[in-house]
Design a protein that fits this description.
25% helix; 24 strands; alpha+beta; 12 helices; Znf_SWIM; five-stranded mixed sheet; DNA Polymerase III, Chain A, domain 2; 4 domains; zinc-finger; Arc Repressor Mutant, subunit A
C-alpha cells in the first residue's frame, strides 16, 4: 500500500559560491534550520551524502527506475545524521557527521527530509580539496522565500514497506556486535574482489589477519554478506576512510542468512550500509518489531520514556531508567516500542539508541502491518484458546497449534512458520497468542 509523500522546499538545494545550501522540508517546524557552519572534511562529506542519496534512488531487487526518495536528516547536539532506505527496502544507509566534522553549532533539533536533487548530486561529485566547506542545513530566511513561485514541491509515491523499514532496522541492529575491523587499504581490495552487482548469492566474510576472507558457509565469527554488490555505494567514500568496521549477530555453523552493517569511518564522519539477510528481502517484512508493536503493557512505559527523550547524540539507558524510575529492561522495551514510530534509531558504532522523529505518519508502521492486523483480528474474534504454555488458534477454515518452547520461542503448525522457521518474526497466530498472554512474552 503506497502513500504520497509531499516534499515542499523553499528552493532547491545547491552548491553555491558561498557554500553548500541543503534545503529542508517539514519537521519540528516548516523548513527547519539545523546547522550553519563548516564541514571540516568536505570531500568525504560530499561522498557520504552521495552514497546516502544513491541508496535512496536505487532498487536493488528487481531494478526499475523509481521516483527518488529524499533522505532524512536529523539535527541533534553536536551531530548531523543523514538516513535513507533503498526503494526495495533491503538496504539502509546512514551518514553520521561527528563533532570532529563540524565547525559550527547545531541551531535546531529535529528530523526532516533534505533535498538532494540531480544537479546537486552532480555538484557534490566535483567537491574536492581539504579546505573546509561552509554548509547550511535549512534555509537562511524562512520569511523571504515564501512566494509560491519560490517553492519547490515534489509528490513522490512512498511505499508503506519503506516506512516500516525504519520500525524494523533499529530492533535488528540493536542485537549486533562488532565482528571485524580492517584498514581502508585492505577494505578497498576486499570490495574489488566482491561478485558483480547482479550477483544474488549469500556469502560470509571471515576475519583473516588484516583483511576478510569470503566463504559460502557460515562459521563462528563470520558476518553474513548477502548480495555483495549492494555495498557498491561505499566505494566513493573509501579514499577518505581510515577503517572498515563490520557488525552483525553471532553466527555459528549452519546459521541462516542474517542482516549485517558495513561502516566506513573517516574520523570526521561515519558512513554505513545495513544489508537485509537476502537481496530479495526488505527490512519491512522481517518482523523484528512485531513484539514491540503488539505489547500493550509497554505503551505506558513508552509514553513516559518518550517524554524524557532529548536531542543528545546517544540515549543513556541507565540515566533514562533513573529518570523514569523503571528497570533498564523496561526502558529498552519502551525504546523498541518508540522505534516502531520512528522516534528512535540505533547506532551500532556507539552501541546506543539515538533520538529522532520521522517526518511521516508514525502510525502507518503499525496500521499497515498485515501480520499485526491479522493477529489483532484473531484476538478480537476470540480465536485463541490457551492451554498452559501452548494454545489453539481457530480461523474460519483451519485450526493451528501454537507451542511455546523453553527458550521463549514460539512454533506454529501454519505454513508461514513451516516456511520461515521463525527467521522472519512470529506468524499472526503466535502473535495473537502473545497478545492474550499475561504478561506479553518475547517472540523470536
Amino acid at each position: 500500500m503506497n502513500a504520497v509523500q509531499t516534499y515542499r522546499y523553499l528552493q532547491p538545494s545547491a552548491l553555491r559560491t558561498a557554500g553548500l545550501d541543503l534545503q529542508t522540508c517539514g519537521g519540528p517546524a516548516a523548513n527547519p534550520r539545523f546547522f550553519a557552519g563548516f564541514l571540516t572534511a568536505p570531500a568525504a562529506a560530499a561522498a557520504g551524502l552521495l552514497a546516502v542519496a544513491e541508496v535512496a534512488r536505487t532498487r536493488y531487487h528487481q531494478p526499475v527506475n523509481p521516483a527518488s526518495l529524499d533522505p532524512v536528516v536529523t539535527g541533534s547536539r553536536g551531530r548531523l545524521r543523514f538516513e535513507s532506505f533503498s526503494g526495495c527496502c533491503g538496504v539502509y544507509a546512514r551518514m553520521d557527521v561527528l563533532p570532529a566534522g563540524l565547525d559550527g553549532e547545531i541551531s535546531g533539533h529535529g528530523t526532516t527530509n533534505v533535498d538532494v536533487n540531480p544537479p546537486l548530486r552532480e555538484a557534490l561529485a566535483r567537491v574536492g580539496g581539504i579546505e573546509p566547506l561552509h554548509v547550511a542545513v535549512g534555509p537562511d530566511d524562512l520569511t523571504v522565500s515564501t512566494m509560491d513561485g519560490c517553492v519547490v514541491e515534489r509528490k513522490v509515491p512512498l511505499p508503506g514497506r519503506w516506512l516500516r523499514g525504519f520500525a524494523e532496522v533499529h530492533v535488528l541492529t540493536a542485537g549486533f556486535e562488532p565482528r571485524a575491523e580492517i584498514p581502508a587499504t585492505e577494505a578497498a581490495a576486499f570490495l574489488r574482489r566482491l561478485p558483480a552487482a547482479n550477483d544474488r548469492s549469500v556469502l560470509w566474510a571471515v576475519p583473516a589477519g588484516r583483511t576478510l576472507r569470503l566463504t559460502s558457509r557460515p562459521a563462528p565469527g563470520a558476518v553474513c554478506l548477502a548480495g555483495a554488490g549492494r555495498l557498491a555505494a561505499l566505494r566513493g567514500v573509501l579514499r577518505h576512510a581510515r577503517t572498515l568496521r563490520v557488525y552483525g549477530p553471532a553466527a555459528r555453523t549452519g546459521s541462516p542468512a542474517v542482516p549485517s552493517t558495513w561502516e566506513l569511518d573517516t574520523g570526521a564522519l561515519r558512513v554505513s550500509l545495513t544489508l537485509s539477510p537476502e537481496p530479495y528481502r526488505g527490512f519491512s517484512g522481517e518482523g523484528a518489531a512485531l513484539a514491540a508493536l503488539a505489547g500493550d503493557d509497554v505503551v505506558d512505559d513508552a509514553e513516559l520514556v518518550g517524554a524524557l527523550l532529548n536531542w543528545d547524540p546517544t540515549i543513556d539507558v541507565a540515566a533514562l531508567a533513573d529518570a523514569a524510575a523503571l528497570p533498564d529492561e523496561r526502558v529498552r522495551a519502551a525504546l523498541a516500542q518508540l522505534g516502531t514510530a520512528g522516534r528512535v534509531g540505533y547506532d551500532v558504532a556507539d552501541g546506543a539508541y539515538f533520538h529522532r522523529v520521522m517526518p511521516y505518519d508514525a502510525g502507518r508502521a503499525e496500521r499497515d502491518n498485515p501480520r499485526l492486523l491479522g493477529a489483532r483480528a484473531l484476538v478480537e474474534r476470540g480465536a485463541v484458546e490457551r492451554d498452559g504454555e501452548d494454545a489453539t488458534v481457530r480461523t474460519d477454515a483451519e485450526v493451528y497449534r501454537v507451542r511455546r518452547h523453553p527458550d521463549g520461542a514460539y512454533s506454529c503448525t501454519c505454513r508461514w512458520w513451516a516456511r520461515h522457521r521463525g527467521q522472519r518474526g512470529p506468524c499472526r497466530h503466535a502473535l495473537a497468542v502473545s497478545m492474550v498472554a499475561a504478561p506479553v512474552e518475547a517472540l523470536s
